User: What shape does this take?
Amino acid sequence: MKSDTFKSDFILLFVATIWGLAFVAQRIGMAHIGPFTFNGIRFVLGCLSLLPIVFLPRNRVSGKNTDGLIKSGIISGLFLFGGISFQQVGLVYTTAGKAGFITGLYVVFVPFLSLFIKNEKTTAASWIGAVLASIGMYLLSVTQNMTMGLGDLLVLFSAVCFAFHLIIIGRLSNRFNVAHLSLVQCMVCAFLSLLTAGIFETFVISDILRVSIPLLYGGVLSVGVAYSLQIYGQKNSPASHAAIILSLESVVAAIGGWFILNEILSGRAIMGCALMMAGMLISQLYSKRIT
Assistant: This one.
């Protein structure tokens, strides 16, 4: 394995760990403040944590790496806003573990979306993975009354948005400075989240202070550090390959939800998680072997 590829894989694995534990932080935050307030503040914190990096001498603005940056950052920021919004609101109604696994379905969505965006052929492995993941999601989220919880459905929508975001970042990661692109998309998310929170939610300082630690984790690590590292890591990693590694956030989320929040999954749900993980891995690991 080339050193650059190994480095990228290690970085993306670190990102997956941060994001997996972020589900726990987001779940804790929902006990005191609204989802858009939480997202708005954490993305503001993420922007602030990026500013020192942006102003480093090596990251100085130049015409070469800023031409089209704002437009590209807005586009990636809109899909990121859609993903984090559906996910955060969904976490009000579902557990961190379930949300982690459903979000991980973007691994299956990426090759299917690439079929239309890049006109790439969808392999047999992708179809097999999609079927397994669908069965797994049914066991995890659909009740015996054949209904799907609102939280699980919202998180499913977030997975679609994250799949688009992953493909977009795959295209933009080598065109722009990592810190600059990350800052722009985070500013878009912060602005839209605070705007939505101002319309639908109420700001209570005492409640915000109660979740200061989850906010700091979600802002500085999950946003400022992780989204920047994602862009950097994808420089030497195709979107489909990156998706395999990043999907491990679902496992970390389930472990974190069990260990920190005492969330217990039923046998049916565990079977669903296993099938979803199998589908995610098959759709990527064997996509070049099964035709």
About this structure: The first helix runs from residue 3 to 29. Residues 97 and 254 are 4 Å apart (CA to CA). The radius of gyration is 18 Å. The mean pLDDT is 81.
